[in-house]
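User: Please fill in residues for this 90-position structure.
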């Protein structure tokens, strides 16, 4: 079962993630391009998952996390998770 790509920032964070990234930051343009590309892949992702079972981590979220890891030259998973908490492409 495919998980949803919805954010629940209000549940886990007291600071709005949109407020952390300046309006003219390059990540905003990158996020827009990435979201458009992932939206076009949605039917492909959907065909890979069944209708039953436990929801997975959405592939879109995993791809965004890997992209942030590449853009910021993050070499470890631990550092990627801490960076993901402050800079999000969702």
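Assistant: Residues filled in for all 90 positions:
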């Amino acid at each position: 079962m495919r998980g949803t790509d919805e954010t629940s920032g209000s549940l886990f964070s007291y600071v709005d993630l949109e407020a952390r990234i300046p309006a003219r930051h390059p990540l905003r343009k990158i996020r827009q391009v990435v979201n458009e590309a992932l939206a076009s892949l949605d039917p492909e992702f959907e065909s890979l998952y069944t209708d039953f079972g436990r929801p997975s981590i959405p592939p879109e979220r995993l791809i965004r996390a890997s992209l942030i890891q590449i853009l910021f030259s993050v070499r470890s998973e631990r550092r990627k998770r801490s960076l993901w908490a402050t800079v999000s492409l969702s």
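For context: Residues 35-90 form one domain.
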